[in-house]
């Protein structure tokens, strides 16, 4: 909050006085400016090579995920007519809730497509060299700082609330973070001690990173031997359809 206030005041000063600062410290503080960040957030302009259709897919799938999670965390025991809960599963309209988990697969599909799209554009069109180390480190740099901060905050999260069922609700997650926090940082928490996962929602981050690394098996052939890469893509799609 303090950084945002200072950054916003500096941003206002620069706006009205037309001044500019080149110091690293000032530029870092400006990153927290509410004005600059809100302008970027509210900006709807896109470049010509942006796949705008993906924004609509993201919105629909995110709404679907929110719908599913709303019912997932709902305590049906507080409602009258508990015996009717089983009947909901037979309702056609309720199938969107029961099968909401598959909406997450769409985000994996979008992520994989964007990885290939952006990487091929950088290498083939802009002529940049492809470096596997940079490819992986770039992903880690985007995820780990904030991810580490959230994990670090978890032991203190038990102090931010209270209530009759607060301890029973939060204790198992706090204990899991005390014992298995390191599995999150190694991105193996979705299959190693998965039943005692620190931050249960973080399974998606682990899967996303694992698939990001696995994408090299498709990405490298696409860059070096396009026909082989396309054949592997087709075989992978066919195999996933047959398996599911």
| Order of SSEs | HHHHHHHHHHHH
Number of helices: 12
Percent range for helical residues? 55-70%
Largest sheet: none
Radius of gyration based on Cα positions = 23 Å
- Cα distance spanning the termini: 47 Å
Protein name: Nose resistant to fluoxetine protein 6
Transmembrane segments: 20-38, 59-80, 92-120, 140-160, 203-223
Organism: Parasteatoda tepidariorum
Pfam families: Acyl_transf_3
Topology:
Elements: H1 2-17, H2 24-30, H3 34-42, H4 53-72, H5 85-88, H6 95-98, H7 103-125, H8 132-157, H9 166-185, H10 203-214, H11 216-224, H12 226-243
Descriptive notes:
The protein has 244 residues and is mainly alpha-helical. Among the domains are: 1-37, no CATH class; 130-243, no CATH class. The chain contains twelve helices and no strands. The protein is 69% helix and 0% strand. Keywords: Membrane, Transmembrane, Transmembrane helix. InterPro entries: Acyl_transf_3_dom, O2_lipid_transport_reg. It holds the Pfam family Acyl_transf_3. GO terms for molecular function: acyltransferase activity, transferring groups other than amino-acyl groups.
What's the short version?
With 244 residues, this protein is mostly helical.
List keywords for this structure.
single chain, 244 residues, mainly alpha, globular, Acyl_transf_3_dom, transmembrane, membrane, transmembrane helix, acyltransferase activity, transferring groups other than amino-acyl groups
């Amino acid at each position: 909050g303090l950084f945002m206030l200072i950054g916003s005041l500096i941003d206002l000063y620069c706006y009205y006085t037309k001044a500019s600062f080149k110091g690293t410290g000032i530029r870092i503080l400006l990153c927290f400016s509410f004005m600059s960040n809100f302008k970027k957030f509210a900006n709807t302009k896109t470049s010509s090579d942006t796949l705008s259709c993906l924004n609509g897919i993201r919105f629909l799938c995110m709404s679907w995920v929110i719908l599913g999670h709303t019912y997932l965390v709902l305590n049906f025991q507080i409602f009258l007519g508990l015996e009717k809960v089983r009947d909901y599963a037979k309702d056609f309209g309720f199938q969107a809730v029961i099968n909401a988990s598959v909406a997450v697969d769409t985000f994996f599909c979008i992520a994989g497509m964007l990885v290939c799209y952006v990487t091929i554009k950088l290498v083939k069109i802009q002529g940049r060299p492809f470096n596997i180390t940079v490819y992986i480190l770039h992903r880690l740099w985007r995820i780990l700082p904030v991810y580490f901060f959230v994990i670090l905050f978890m032991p203190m999260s038990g102090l931010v609330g209270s209530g009759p069922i607060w301890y029973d609700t939060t204790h198992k997650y706090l204990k899991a973070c005390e014992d298995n926090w390191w599995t999150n940082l190694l991105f193996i928490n979705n299959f190693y001690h998965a039943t005692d996962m620190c931050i249960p929602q973080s399974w998606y981050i682990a899967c996303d990173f694992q698939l990001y690394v696995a994408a090299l098996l498709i990405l490298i052939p696409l860059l070096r031997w396009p026909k082989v890469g396309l054949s592997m893509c087709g075989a992978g799609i066919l195999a996933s359809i047959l398996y599911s």
